[in-house]
Amino acid sequence: MIFRPGTAVWVEHPDLAWAEAEVVSTAPTRSSAPSTITVVLLSNGAKVSASLLMGVAMRCSRPVVADGRKVLPRDMEADLCGVDDMTKLIYLHEPGVLCNLARRYTLNEIYTYTGRILIAVNPFAKLPHLYDMHMMEQYRGVQFGELSPHVFAIADASYRAMVGENCSQSILVSGESGAGKTETTKLIMRYLTFVGGRATGNIRSVEQQVLEANPLLEAFGNARTVRNDNSSRFGKFVQIQFDKSGRISGAAVRTYLLERSRVVQISESERNYHCFYQLCASGQDADKYKLAHPRNFNYLNQSHTFELQGVSDAEEYLKTRRAMDIVGICFADQEAIFRIVAAILHLGNIEFSPGEEFDSSAIKDEKCRFHLQMAADLLMVDASLLLSTLCFRKIKTPEGNIIKAVDNSSAVIGRDALAKTVYARLFDWLVDNINKSIGQDIDSRAQIGVLDIYGFECFKYNSLYFGSSFLEFLMALPCVSFEQLCINFANEKLQQHFNKHVFKMEQEEYKTEEINWSYIEFVDNQDILDLIEKKPIGIVSLLDEACILGKSTHETFATKLFQNLRTHPRLDKPKLSKTDFALSPFAGKACPVNQHFFLEGKISNLEDENHLLRQKALNLSPRHSRTGVPHAVQDHSLNLHL
After folding, report:
1. Catalytic annotation, pick one of 12, 457, 472, 609
2. How do residues 270-303 score in pLDDT, each as one tens digit?
3. Is 231 a catalytic residue?
4. Residue 147 scores a pLDDT above 60
5. Is 178 assigned to a binding site?
6. Superfamily assignment of 336-431+610-638 in CATH?
7. N or C, which terminus of the chain has less Cβ within 10 Å?
């Protein structure tokens, strides 16, 4: 694009992302090189000198030369209040979009359309007036775009399209971590139950059960992170089914990628899942399970954040119990659920010391033995069997099984693997029973699906841990960062789907119909997807191969990775490490990956833990033992099948 002197432009800025500027002069270069542009930044109406070097604006004392490819046009006549639909913008590029959103945000307008897409800027504040009954009535049945942008408008348009076209609809809620996806999803579901609900006062109605499923899943699947006090640590797809009259007739919840590692490992300023803190604050129930303040449990005291501002865990515990009542979980099953939660906390306090024999382990002290006994009673297994499961491993050989003692560090790994497995199965059971209680309508006319997916995150390290197979690699080990890598990969797939339908297919249709339009540039992320998933040479394929080979190490995996993919533009190798690598995702910021250790041979710990739990099938029904905690009843049991 050719800029004349005096043209209003945007230039990249290290602090502001983009800054307003004015062209002073342009200088064409040889055909193979981009033109250079001399610009000055504008601040509060005064000219401020700046330079643009490799696309980054740097402060200096005079106008300087900029790379012409890094300068974008600026609309001088843009509405100072912003536009409610960004398809009205003269220049639909990054600085134009950000400037428009910022202008609307300063006026407390958090919603903006881009065609049929709603962009929400999280205000990090309660705005009850935006979501009350009056507001839902306002948007009910109104043509899309007639009123100000709102999440209710998206939900209403989806509902009316389903009813009018007799066709199922889907709503995708996406964004980075802390963007407000979970709250937006709840608002959408609330509106759909409003327009599709029946006039009934029954608290056990389908509509009410659908709504109460949210706080229940939040108690067991949400946690505080550095960005969000109530961050969903799992993906969720809610299908709300409707009958011929457009009334809700059933629903189903599907969950994905629960962050299992959070059960045993949390970072500073974060918390474990809410249910642990709720149970510790429950009073008599906490006393019944020999629980105390969260600071007394290893799975909770890795962070010094035990409470949430403005939130009472004791009150939230009562709300969770009420949600269980409405969803249809009986009292006996509720007791069993929290018994398992308590068992996990006691399990985390079991510590080991070196045993008498070489590479063996034993219970550290009497305090740990108390927690062992409590965990065994709560899990309804024999304490000696639990101890042997943690301190010994069964190794399969052609001649038969060999029982081998493990050192104390391996015993801790087995303990954590057991805790994660039990919690994950408990969460799955909870979801299954919510679905059974609400019920699905197999004769439903149509449905609306709402997808609340994980937000993209990039930590200091996205760590990879290895096992004997890719499945065990995913299931058994404390893979904090690999889980996030999977989540980021899922977001990349969603971004590709978005690109395909919003950019690729739409512009191909314009080209076919010979419509005159300006081609919209967008970042195609197919290359990062190929880097991760392509067969036979991709990160996942190479990782799976390394896991199968018994003598593989993280050094040999990294070597093979760089041998096959060293020229890939999205893969970077840090200079001072032989095994680290970094991926540059769609979001643009490179996410480093660091292999901390590689476990050789076959990982058999899950098999041993599963054998232990199958002794009672992890029955969750009450019969009191000598310690005052429930034991299993074979003829009436709630099982976590492993």
Report:
1. 457
2. 999 999 999 999 999 999 999 999 999 999 999 9
3. yes
4. yes
5. yes
6. Myosin VI head, motor domain, U50 subdomain (1.20.120.720)
7. N
